[in-house]
Amino acid sequence: MLLTISLWLLVSILILWALLDPVSRVSRALYEIIIPIIMVKTVDLKNQFGEWAVVTGSTDGIGRAYAKELATRGINLVLISRNIDRLEKTREEIIEINSTIQVKIIAADFSKGRSVINEIEKQLKDIPVGILVNNVGKQYTYPMYVGEVPEDEMWDIINVNVGAATSMTRMVISGMQKRRMGAIVNVSSGSEMQPLPLMTIYAATKVYLKSFSDALRIEYKKFGITVQHLTPLFVNTKMNAFSSRLQVSSVFVPDATTYAKNAVATLGKIDTSAGYWAHGIQTFFTLIPPKWIRTRVGEMMNQTFRNDYLKQKNI
Ligand SMILES: NC(=O)c1ccc[n+]([C@@H]2O[C@H](COP(=O)([O-])OP(=O)(O)OC[C@H]3O[C@@H](n4cnc5c(N)ncnc54)[C@H](OP(=O)(O)O)[C@@H]3O)[C@@H](O)[C@H]2O)c1
Ligand SMILES: *[C@@H]1O[C@H](CO)[C@@H](O)[C@H](O)[C@H]1NC(C)=O
Ligand SMILES: *[C@@H]1O[C@H](CO)[C@@H](O)[C@H](O)[C@H]1NC(C)=O
Ligand SMILES: *[C@@H]1O[C@H](CO)[C@@H](O)[C@H](O)[C@H]1NC(C)=O
Questions:
Q1: Range(s) of the domain holding residue 253
Q2: Has residue 119 been placed in a domain?
Q3: Rounded to 5, what percent of the chain is helix, strand, coil?
Q4: pLDDT digits (tens, 9 = 90+) for 58-89
Q5: What is the pTM of this model?
Q6: What total number of domains does the chain contain?
Q7: 3-state DSSP call for residue 273?
Q8: 99 C-beta closer than 6 A to ligand 2
Q9: Which residue's alpha carbon is nearest to atom 8 within ligand 4?
Q10: Residues of the signal sequence (predicted)?
């Protein structure tokens, strides 16, 4: 009798323990959806973080939309991307939105690694950066097996996704610490939630970013610095050009402007977020099944995208 009871007790505790992890993950996701809804007051970004923002990868997609949203908040901008013509065009678009702000442009290719970082550092010497948006990111041309990834593409992914965010953060964080204010925003990806077969390297770099943000936040919290980690799911940008399925905007695949408006509104309110409410809901449901199922589903999705791509290219 006693044995049966203790056996059942043990089993119940084990089940409870096993359930606790998904419960905490899922309630965290729920919390992230709710906070921006209850905290309706707009944060004065300029007062709270500073007058200047640096946005990497800012001439297209999420980065450009994010920069424009900051412009409407009266923040001066430094735009960093590879192509000088696109940079100038983006600067004009932004000045049109708000002619009272200053916009500086820097042409740099983060896939070149350390050499461009020194050049950027020189150009940012006299600018008190209040917000750094680590947005630039490189994804696979299409889903591939690790052995198929061209060597150049592999290094580009690592240099851009890991190197740029890490070195840009290191560059600006001491200034923020001195001024005792600042925000570092990391644009990661839903692919950090589980390993992603056929996008192995990309997903792994995004996990690096998550760990980096989480640790950085604790290191610098005492200096008044906010570290926000954004995990968008699919956004309709040219990054997803390999699949026509992802080139149609919808509630769940928003355009970059919608995404950025929502994401900027969460800054200063919550440290980790999908950045956009419908993605928050998707994340919530995504986190319910165990990781091994999510990994399999991710693999199947990418297999589909791979087939889409190969069909488009007639390979
Ligand atoms: N779109 C999505 O569905 C999605 C989902 C989850 C996460 N994300 C993440 O969101 C971020 C932005 O993605 P996106 O879709 O907005 O990208 P995007 O539309 O492809 O825009 C990329 C931007 O980065 C610049 N850029 C690209 N390579 C660069 C390099 N080597 N050095 C400097 N600048 C470079 C591009 O300008 P130039 O070509 O002029 O350099 C462009 O301004 C990425 O970190 C991505 O991982 C996107
Ligand atoms: C432009 O920036 C100023 C602050 O420099 C701000 O007060 C104003 O609201 C912004 N204007 C627009 C149209 O976004
Ligand atoms: C953003 O996160 C990624 C990983 O979490 C990290 O590599 C990067 O340095 C972080 N950047 C900032 C500004 O926190
Ligand atoms: C593979 O699927 C995951 C979602 O499971 C997605 O985040 C990722 O972007 C996909 N990769 C490609 C290249 O579509």
A1: 44-312
A2: yes
A3: 60, 10, 30
A4: 999 999 999 999 999 999 999 999 999 999 99
A5: 0.85
A6: 1
A7: strand
A8: no
A9: 191
A10: 1-18
